[in-house]
Design goal:
Keywords: Aminoacyl-tRNA synthetase, ATP-binding, Cytoplasm, Ligase, Magnesium, Metal-binding, Nucleotide-binding, Protein biosynthesis. Its cofactor is Mg(2+). InterPro entries: Aa-tRNA-synt_II (IPR004364), aa-tRNA-synth_II (IPR006195), aa-tRNA-synth_II/BPL/LPL (IPR045864), Lys-tRNA-ligase_II (IPR002313), Lys-tRNA-ligase_II_N (IPR044136), Lys-tRNA-synth_II_C (IPR018149), NA-bd_OB-fold (IPR012340), NA-bd_OB_tRNA (IPR004365). This protein has about 500 residues and is of the alpha+beta class. It has two domains: about 5-155, Nucleic acid-binding proteins (OB fold (Dihydrolipoamide Acetyltransferase, E2P), Beta Barrel); about 170-320 and about 380-490, Bira Bifunctional Protein, Domain 2 (BirA Bifunctional Protein, domain 2). The chain is built from 17 helices and 18 strands. It has helices at about 5-10, 10-30, 45-50, 95-100, 100-110, 160-165, 165-170, 175-195, 235-245, 280-300, 325-335, 345-350, 360-375, 425-440, 455-460, 475-480, 485-490; strands at about 60-75, 80-85, 90-95, 115-125, 130-145, 200, 205, 220, 225-230, 250-255, 270-280, 305, 315, 320-325, 380-390, 405-410, 415-420, 465-470. The strands form four sheets. The protein has an eight-stranded mixed beta sheet, sandwiched between helices. Strand 12 (about 305) and strand 13 form a beta hairpin. It is elongated and about 90 Å long. It starts with a helix and ends in a 7-residue tail after the last helix.
Length: about 500
């Protein structure tokens, strides 16, 4: 892999010094960073207007355009530059002696470098080779770059790209494309919710009591209130308050923060979608989740079978299967495992497989064993349903199966994409679950939930039967592109 020093050049300090001198010269002549420029057209608009001009044509159309210099060739009386817009579209600029004059041409040769933002005004033409161009009658510096771009012939490497995303966006089409895909996916999600009469709301990022998930929070302190606060790990408990208040279909897309590990599928800061539907349940919310993802694929790519970054396909079409956690585990393990299976038996089976689990909850063993036996074989999108009751403190008991709750996790390409519940709305049972979580916290579980009296008070005013779901936006982008989580986040947290 090419090192960062090699990418940026061994003589970087000298190059910066030279460019600083050019900046001073530009400021003497006019301005290295003008406040505005007479731009009349975008590069995209010109290319759309003249898609198939023959070679050596003068259109007579006068335009003013701006772009970043990505290619530069200075030869005698005629200089060439490739100007790039923010979308990656490029057009050729031609600076000729007979159009701009000797002084301006020499200033171009002296002061313009790769990476500079340049404004040119002139006629739209095609060159003798047929390349769409602007034959400049004048040019101005739009923004002088002090630091040169890396060698564009080298592979920047993922680590360099995520640390210098602004450079990645300049030089790599795929980086810009992923940002565009993400924006279009977000629009599709909002359209689907709008068509189903959901309302988008915002809930607090800073919380007095963290809850809504089992995770370690980030802690902070409010000077104004002189109190400890937490960056939220989930918006769930506030969104449920909204349902109590009569907002029967609500969703939120925003940031969550979990003070945990970082790997290809986890980031300490990540975008999350959560939605709650009064008078729905985990079945209706699974239908909604499938619709959200399939609509996003169709709206952005025109198909439910998306081609990933490595050339493979992710088939999101059709009705996705729903399998029971306990039944699928029993079948894969070759031994019946139920909510009544003694935890000692589960420990024995785990140890025989080399799986070390140190946890008092029966459900933790079930879930870990399921991940060992079943998860690796899930290629198609699959809803895994009916989880152990002791690992799902915010979920309603199953209406007909003892010892499990009405919860599903959606797995896509081997990782968890989303989760959904029939929500627990009984305040008495919810208090009992919170008390049990407090006992786990006392025993040393750092992910156990705290008892939230304000949330319980809200439930005591009556929350209708509801379905709820949560889905990681970054992971959704992973499903649609095949990229790692750091590539789907515009500016990921890096050490």
């Amino acid at each position: 892999m090419v090192s960062e020093q090699e990418l940026e050049g061994q003589d970087l300090p000298e190059q910066i010094a030279i460019r600083l001198q050019k900046r001073e010269r530009l400021n003497e002549l006019s301005d290295a960073y003008p406040v505005s420029l007479p731009v009349t057209h975008t590069i995209e608009a010109i290319k759309a207007q003249y898609p198939n001009l023959e070679a050596d044509i003068a259109t007579g159309d006068q335009v003013g355009i701006a772009g970043r210099v990505m290619f530069l060739r200075n030869t005698g009386k005629l200089c060439f530059a490739s100007l790039q817009s923010g979308t990656g579209e490029r057009i050729q600029a031609m600076i000729s002696l007979d159009k701009v004059g000797e002084e301006s041409l020499e200033q171009w040769k002296e002061l313009v470098d790769l990476g500079d933002h340049i404004f040119v005004a002139g006629e739209v033409i095609t060159s003798k080779r047929g390349e769409l161009s602007v034959l400049a009658e004048s040019w101005l510096m739009a923004a002088k770059t002090i630091r040169p771009l890396p060698n564009l012939h080298n592979d920047l490497g993922e680590e360099y790209r995520v640390r210098h995303r602004y450079i990645d966006l300049i030089v790599r089409d795929r980086a810009r494309e992923v940002v565009k895909i993400r924006s279009e996916v977000m629009q599709s999600l909002r359209n689907t919710f709008s068509n189903r009469a959901f309302m988008e709301v915002e809930t607090p990022m800073l919380q007095v009591v963290h809850g809504g998930a089992s995770a370690r929070p980030f802690k902070t302190h409010s000077n104004a209130f002189d109190t400890e606060l937490f960056l939220r790990i989930a918006p769930e408990l506030f969104l449920k308050r909204a349902v109590v208040g009569g907002l029967e279909r609500v969703y939120e897309i925003n940031r969550n923060f979990r003070n945990e590990g970082a790997d290809r599928t986890h980031s300490p800061e990540f975008a999350m979608l959560e939605a709650y539907e009064a008078y729905g349940d985990y079945n209706s919310i699974a239908d909604l989740t499938q619709e959200l993802i399939q609509n996003a694929a169709k709206d952005v790519f025109g198909t439910h079978i998306v081609t990933l970054d490595d050339g493979t396909e992710n088939d999101l079409s059709g009705q996705w299967p729903r399998i029971s956690m306990f039944e699928s585990l029993s079948e894969a393990a070759g031994v019946e495992i139920t909510p009544d299976t003694d935890i000692a038996e589960l420990k024995k089976l785990s140890l025989s497989l080399g799986i070390e689990i140190d946890h008092p909850l029966h459900g933790k063993y079930v879930e870990e064993l399921w991940e060992h036996f079943v998860k690796p074989g899930l290629d198609r999108p699959t809803f895994v349903t009916d989880f152990p009751v002791d690992t799902s403190p915010l979920t309603r008991d199953h209406r007909s199966k003892r010892g499990v709750v009405e919860k599903w996790d959606l797995y896509v390409r081997g990782f968890e994409q989303a989760t959904g519940y029939s929500e627990l709305v009984d305040p008495v049972v919810q208090r009992e679950r919170f008390v049990a979580q407090m006992e786990l916290a006392k025993a040393g579980d750092p992910e156990a939930m705290k008892l939230d009296e304000e949330f319980l008070k809200a439930l005591e005013f009556g929350m209708p039967p509801s379905g709820g779901m949560g889905m990681g936006i970054d992971r959704l982008l992973m499903s649609l592109t095949g990229l790692g989580i750091r590539e789907t986040i515009l500016f990921p947290l890096v050490k």
